Amino acid sequence: MEQPMMVARNGVITSIRKIGKYKSIQIDGIGVNGVVLNVDENTIIRNQAGEVIGLDDLAIGMVIHVQHSLAMTMSLPPQTYAYSITIQSS
Could you state, in order of their start, the residue ranges of all structural domains in the chain? Predict the structure, then answer.
């Protein structure tokens, strides 16, 4: 199986959205600024100890390290898929 092309970056959570099946986290901006990270049941979310947690455990203002798809929409803000999210600080 081919490995997906990923980018790693740190960011501050500025928005968390849960609308039906659609779930996303916005980092480093609000409105048309920052990046929207789309998450699903395959996105691995970990706390600082490396334990798997859920989207409900994340909060605005947390610094996270994310591995996301190299592919990104050209919308404002750009959107991409998050493979993994790890809390760096609360």
Answer: 6-89
Asked whether 37 and 45 are in contact (CB, 8 A), the reply is no
- Which CATH superfamily, name and number, covers 6-89? Nucleic acid-binding proteins (2.40.50.140)
Please name which of 10, 11, 23 lies closest in space to residue 54, comparing C-alpha atoms. 23
3-class secondary structure, 28: coil
- pLDDT tens digits for 36-76? 999 999 999 999 999 999 999 999 999 999 999 999 999 99
Question: What does pTM read for this prediction?
Answer: 0.93
- Residue pair 57/45 in contact (Cβ under 8 Å)? The answer is yes
Q: For the segment 4-27, what is each residue's pLDDT rounded down to a tens digit?
A: 789 999 999 999 999 999 999 999
Helices (H) then strands (E): counts for the chain: 0, 7
Question: First and final CA of the chain: distance in angstroms?
Answer: 35
